[in-house]
Amino acid sequence: SQHLASSLLMHLTGIDVVHIPFRGSGPAASALMGDQLDFMIDTGSVAQVKAGSLRALAVASEDRTNALPDVPTFAEQGLPDMIAFAWYGIVAPAGSPKDIVDYLNKEINAVVQSPEVKQHLEGMGAQVPAPQSAQTFSTFMQTEIGRYGDLIKMSGAKME
User: Fold this and answer.
1) Confidence class for position 3, pLDDT limits 50, 70, 90
2) pTM of the shown model
3) Nearest 5°: phi and psi at 73?
4) 3-class SS at 59?
5) Cα→Cα distances 36→2, 8, 20, 99, 151, Å
């Protein structure tokens, strides 16, 4: 997702940068702190930002994040289409009975909204999602698949 977010940033701004693949955010953040990189787009460097080892320039979500409330969004800085954030979901086999899907949805929403899980997610820098229906999430997922499909084609990214 970070590679695709960088591709989106390049496309929207016209900048040309060299993609340097790393085996995870940790090694990339180390290279950035060691002045071997000029910037990186990452979902897991909140602790380094809070410690002062890295400086967050913008968040690529629609709204500011609770983890870094003083960091503006790209939209606030003139790039309203620079929306690229990691998200996770739970899916069931196609054709699962609606009552089972509804029950699982209700219970998963309750767990995600529990104080313990919210605190854990926020501690990692994640935004805690508002409860939503399975249909709402399905619609969101389909939109994201289309958006990222277009971005993958535009970026020329290949499976390795």
Assistant:
1) confident
2) 0.77
3) -80, 165
4) strand
5) 18, 22, 11, 53, 27
CA distances from 120 to 100, 114, 117, 125, 150 (A): 27, 10, 5, 9, 33
Which of the four pLDDT bands, split at 50, 70 and 90, describes residue 59? Answer: very high
Q: Which residues are paired to 59 by β-bridges?
A: 73
pLDDT tens sequence across 61-94: 889 988 889 999 999 999 999 998 888 889 999 9
B/e letters for 99-138, b = 16+ CB within 10 Å, e = fewer, are: eebeeebeeebeeeeeeeeeeebeeebbbeeeeeebeebe
